[in-house]
Amino acid sequence: MKIKPEFDLIPEDGWRKKIYEVVYLSNTKAGKTFDIFLLALILISTVLLMVETIPIINLKYRTEFYYAEFFITLIFTIEYILRIICVKDREEYIFSPLGVIDFLSIIPFYISLFFPVWHFVAIIRMLRMLRIFRIFNLADYMHDGRFIVSALKHSSRKIYIFLLFMVVFIVLIGSLMYVVEGGKNGFSSIPQSVYWAVVTITTVGYGDISPATPLGKMLSIIVMLCGYSIIAVPTGIVTSEFRKQKKNNFNCKRCGNDDNDENARFCKICGEKII
To answer: Which domains does the chain have, with CATH numbers?
Structure first.
């Protein structure tokens, strides 16, 4: 059987290769069963971690939570060791992004055993949810994420200028509201007024601070209307750059053909690999 490796580290025939087919592949019955088992453990672990933060439930079932987490962490530890054992180049897996995630998802529990003060570090266990990318073979499509990264990188200068403008605008609005309200109605200081300006211009509107004077209400209306239009600016900048990146990406570097489909992997004219 021809095997498609995850890290191109398929071991030689033997017990290591059998383990590899189970823990790394999903096109076998044993591999699918193992993936389903891991998915169930990840979901259970995530639910337990969230429920554990509820004080009443945690006090009542603290022991049960501890043993459940101990069992789940032990399973993930065994799986992590098996992944290291059954590959040729172990460093390739250990220092790969998925390998680092696997390590970080189990180490907090062992740290909390020796340093109870580090109990809150256990929240890192939530990284186990990222392992779902491996289970559903989504890692093969992660390269598409470079479009977003590239779009953010190329539009960063425009976004920085926009953020600088926003900081100046918010400080001015907050200071003006402090003067208009006369330091009353919750606007006791300029920082407090700036907080109100941020909450209002982002259309969050907690309602803990609100103007009472007619001029203050009028100013708040203007800020709210500005907020709706301002929020769309960075989205438009990134979207525009993203479309440029997508368009440029599907141009063939060999023959220059720019009429390739968005889901194309090879040029329709010369067959050159595009992605």
So the answer is: 15-136 (1.20.120.350), 149-249 (1.10.287.70)
Q: State yes or no: pLDDT of 7 exceeds 50.
A: no
Q: What is the largest CA-CA distance in the chain?
A: 81
The 3-state secondary structure of the chain reads: CCCCCCCCCCCCCCHHHHHHHHHCCCCCHHHHHHHHHHHHHHHHHHHHHHHHCCHHHHHHCHHHHHHHHHHHHHHHHHHHHHHHHCCCCHHHHHCCHHHHHHHHCCHHHHHHHHCHHHHHHHHHHHHHHHHHHHHCCHHHHHHHHHHHHHHHHHCHHHHHHHHHHHHHHHHHHHHHHHHHHCCCCCCCCHHHHHHHHHHHHCCCCCCCCCCCCHHHHHHHHHHHHHHHHHHHHHHHHHHHHHHHHHHHHCCCCCCCCCCCCCCCCECCCCCCECC
Mean pLDDT of the chain: 79
100-119 pLDDT tens trace = 888 888 888 888 777 766 55
Distance CA(243)–CA(58), nearest Å, equals: 48
Q: What is the pLDDT of residue 5?
A: 46
Closest CA to 88 of 145, 148, 6: 6
Q: What is the pLDDT of residue 225?
A: 87
Phi, psi of 273 (to 5 degrees): -70, 130
pTM over 0.85: no
Return the residue matching tokens 């992590």: 80
Residues 176-195 pLDDT 10s? 999 988 888 888 889 999 99
Here the tokens at position 250 are: 């599907």
The residue assigned the tokens 């425009």 is: 158
